[in-house]
Design brief:
alpha+beta; 10-stranded antiparallel β-barrel; two-stranded antiparallel sheet; binds tryptophan; ABBA_NscD-like; Prenyltransferase
Length: 343
């Protein structure tokens, strides 16, 4: 850790190749799930060698934990290329629940062969998994007028590495310059969930932000075979782009947790385990907050950065505006590196 990051991982803003998250579950409010999102790095990291390292990692875990890799194998070669583009090659997450073996998830990059190839790649991957109808429904609701690949982008294609009934395929879209109503509409692709909840969630997490002009709102669909529509929807608010510091993010997130009936003391334990500084001394420890609607496990998830390499300083308050609408001006204060994403 005394060296700079060996690879500019996109997992976290400071390039730490892991990120923690704690999931609060409606069905079992006292039992949190711990997840770790990670990027496997080769000893000589590059876009290409890291992809191989990630596949080796998955193979090794599959052997160790007896993971079912059939879904992975069905789509893996679609996302394989000698010349990976975009922000990452292959990520994975590990999901820990009390008293159980860890579960694994793999994230493919739909834009790995270039932005314009993403819709076709994902369509083919979902066709192979028998989910093409759900995909059509999802896009119908998620894409704003205009073209897929501009303001609405396919960000992750994720498969579970197990074959239990709750095994999922998930598709994530990033919505640049979106408003809450855009993700509410996206959520309406799913039947039987309270899509309107999302508006309130975004308003509270964003502190009244109307247009999310900093880091994008992200939405994900959960697909289950045999269905014509996605069965679940989650929205991820990159709260760190819309606060001055983590103290402010913390207040919003604990407010949200309490609104959904969770004990925010559990979040305190997680933060204490990760943070090495007072919350008001930086921004980005609390990276995202998400609301999960529908199966498999509705609830709220809070994403915590490791900040292994760097702490981002709090955003300065604009003196002329200070005190008036402190929640509303945050996004404009610091340029956001993720807006101009490379292809
Ligand atoms: N750091 C990246 C981003 O903020 C990727 C990422 C990590 C992410 N965790 C996430 C994206 C949770 C959405 C939700 O975009």
């Amino acid at each position: 850790m005394s060296e700079p990051p060996a690879w500019p991982s996109g997992i976290a803003d400071d390039h730490t190749p892991i990120e923690y998250s704690v999931a609060f579950n409606e069905s079992e409010p006292d039992r949190l799930t711990l997840r770790i999102l990670g990027e496997a790095l080769d000893t000589v990291p590059s876009a290409t060698t890291n992809m191989s390292a990630a596949r080796r990692f998955i193979q090794a875990q599959a052997g160790r934990f007896g993971l079912a890799v059939s879904r992975f194998d069905q789509v893996n070669e679609l996302f394989a290329t000698d010349d990976p583009r975009g922000d990452f090659g292959l990520w994975h997450s590990m999901v820990f629940r009390p008293g159980r073996r860890p579960e694994f998830k793999v994230y493919f990059n739909p834009e790995v062969k270039g932005v314009h190839r993403a819709p076709g790649l994902v369509a083919e991957a979902l066709r192979r998994l028998g989910l093409e109808k759900s995909y059509d429904t999802a896009l119908e609701y998620a894409i704003r007028p205009g073209e897929l690949g501009r303001d609405d982008r396919l960000t992750f294609f994720a498969v579970d590495l197990h074959d239990q009934p709750h095994a999922r395929v998930k598709l994530y879209l990033s919505h640049y310059n979106a408003q809450a109503r855009d993700v509410v509409r996206a959520a309406r692709a799913v039947a039987g969930i309270e899509a309107d909840e999302i508006a309130e969630f975004c308003a509270l997490a964003g502190g009244g932000t109307v247009t999310f002009a900093g880091r994008p709102l992200v939405g994900s669909y959960t697909f289950l075979s045999g269905q014509d529509r996605p069965v679940g929807y989650s929205v991820y608010v990159p709260i760190r782009s819309y606060v001055r510091d983590d103290e402010q993010a913390y207040r919003r997130v604990t407010g949200l947790l309490e609104r959904y009936g969770f004990d925010s003391g559990q979040l305190d334990r997680a933060i204490d385990a990760v943070a090495r500084r007072p919350l008001r001394d930086g921004v980005g420890l609390i990276a995202h907050v998400s609301l999960r609607l529908g199966p498999p496990r509705p609830g709220v998830t809070v994403y915590l950065s490791a900040e292994a390499y760097r702490v981002d300083p709090p955003r300065p308050l604009l003196p002329s505006l200070a005190g008036e609408h402190p929640e509303l001006r945050m996004a404009a204060v610091r340029p956001d590196p993720t807006i101009a994403r490379s292809e």
